[in-house]
Amino acid sequence: MNTPFDPARAVMDYPRRDAQDKVTGRTRYTVDMGGPGVLHAVMVRAAAAPARILRIDTAAAAAMPGVQAIATAADAPGLHGIGIADHPLFAIDTIRYPGEPVAAIAAETLEQARAAAAAVVIETEPLPAAVTMAAALADGAPLVHPGWRDYEVITEGAIRGGNIAWEARFERGAVDAAFARADVTVVESCFRVGRQNQMPFEPRAAVASFEDGRHHIRTSTQVPWTVRNVTARVLGLPPSQVRVTVPAVGGGFGLKFDCTIEPVAAILARKSGRTVSLVNARDEEMLTCLCRENADIRIRSAIAPDGTIAAREAVVLMDCGAYGGEQVFLTTMTAHTLGGNYRAGAMRMVSRAVYTHTPPNGAFRACNGVYNTFALERHTDEICAAIGMDRAAFRLKNVLGDGDIGAAGQRFQGEVLRPMLDRMEALRVESGDRRAQAGGRLYGRATTVGTWFIFVGPSSATVNLNADGSATLVTAGVEIGQGTMMQALPQIVAANLGLHPSEVIVKTADTDAAGRDLGVGGGRTTVSIGAAAEAACADLRRKLLPVAAEMLQTPAERLVLTAGRVEIAGRPGSGTTIAKVVERAEAVMGPVSGSGAFTNPGVSAMPGCAAGHFIEAIDIPVFAVHDCELAVDPDTGHVEILAYRVVQDVGRALNPRAVRSQIQGGVVQGLGYALFEEMTVHPGTGAMEQAGFESYLMPLAQDVLPVEVDLFEGAPSIGPLGTKGAGEVPILNVGAAVGCAVADAIGRPVGQLPLTPPRVLALIDGRDSAPDHPHIPRRWADNLLR
């Protein structure tokens, strides 16, 4: 019995319930939980790499004042990873990157822990280094993992070997025949992007204790179940012996979509018998930052005389650093992000995660998609220049539409991108051209498209009805600042149960109380946890309404939940309060709760065309159209954004104000990637060259402008009430829009981000050109692993 409700009730500009506590400083984060009696821990990190470990001596450190526990690789024998288990918690016999942990120390005070860490003796023997991808892929390169063949392969199907941690590929259609046609124009482009740091204000932090024979970890994470399972794996424990709870998280952006310091805190807590707080210092965060990866991209397209894309092939090299990590999974996303905007008659792509002797990289908002969209849209503009076709006309002609086949054989539903392009043109005309604001500077404008895919995965939810008629939502979802847990999910539950969102209590994540969840990232939270919560509400209504039907002497199918009451449909005031029904239900059947689950329902892809992919087809595409107007100072190379516009596919905006806020924030973060932000690696040591906010350039208030936003609703979605994730995609097109607009302004190709003033000046003066990638073979046959 699933009595329908009015989904329009879910749509409102519901304010964030955590806003006041956050702006007044009352919110307690993990970093605030190191109170009296709590030990303070620090990591002992390697200063240089690569190196063979000859000896680690902790005897002097153990004898120092205040020291209560020391952990080394002997305490954590297991390896973990995504796809392949290649990552130890502490360096075992080899140090592979500067800053890699070799030990950890817990003491009564932070100062004592740091003093003891300085007393640890580490004797090493230097090894040959491969700091760049070009060096790692060169003939005779030193292997980052000489024993790569011995690693456990968790997910089968990829090509691996040497310094290639993972290779995913697909091929659809007769690519070689299309490129061999006499009537096509072949356009080839190369692109390069650097690393970007997530830079949340709260660093990675964990507070661990050992209680009743189990580990309890309180941590600032996006993925409590990943922390639970990885901690158990590296410690050699059943996962049931690890409990993870998540306080308020001070930002994530993908940095905390991994398990890093949490098992270390757990080991120290068990060895000391005390609660242990482990918090990365800012320079440690920068040194071991899990950045958005640097990447090299080569794209080659065959364009038919009518302006359609006869064939496309591409190679993407992603620097995963010393361990495979998130990049192993992200090799999958290349097919979707680089192959997701336009129709092509035939396609093939290869995406490689490459080991280097540098700090591991990780997830970052719209991971893999930001730089692939930059490369694809710049390549699109270069196609238009080569064939003499208007950029807007080419996009309108070639963007994916209803019934089109995507890169890996996924069929798209609905006509979305073309009407979005029309909406952008209307928005641009309405807001007016900003050319006059350029003054004597070079003016440029560009419109770009982007496609992101929400990989949903498993989620669960339980909804309890309380005696006062309110509801409690229990999930493993985490509020990382995006507002999903504080706004969207209460709105979904409230709409299903006839409540106001303020009457829905959202429990913080606890792996002992909530079922498994894949984690907060990729735009999946509203969709996955929202769908699970909706299913839990349906289960709850099936239990509640028969009780109400007996009380009201009315068939359950005629009852509706609205405004905190159970009413007879069409007869306002005829029913009773939900609280009274709950009181009766508890008397006759016990407490009223509902449970629900959701996972990837699966869409079909073309069989046999993909290898090494974790997901061959992804259920929910999300589209974006961005337009950027800017001015370039020809004397300084400084780029000023004059206007920025976004038309974003949101499925259905449950909270339009919140969605607009996410778009504003995502665009600003993208402007940092496009113009300022780059983590650079020392060419000799492989260490990060930026150590904090002082040396890592980010957008400041004067660099930000209001973003003009048009929310495009109605595109097909399996999300609850037609929703799509709105937080991930706003950053997707920014690097592309800025890069294309700068190229338009200066009249020269742009092949690299960020567009810092020195780099722009070099482009203007002809001292810089689009990057070439001699380590990326041009011929597909040469792409086979050697």
UniProtKB/TrEMBL annotation:
InterPro entries: Ald_Oxase/Xan_DH_a/b, Ald_Oxase/Xan_DH_a/b_sf, Ald_Oxase/xanthine_DH-like, AldOxase/xan_DH_MoCoBD1, AldOxase/xan_DH_MoCoBD2, AldOxase/xan_DH_Mopterin-bd_sf. SUPFAM superfamilies: CO dehydrogenase molybdoprotein N-domain-like, Molybdenum cofactor-binding domain. Residues 24-128 form the Aldehyde oxidase/xanthine dehydrogenase a/b hammerhead domain. This is Xanthine dehydrogenase family protein molybdopterin-binding subunit.
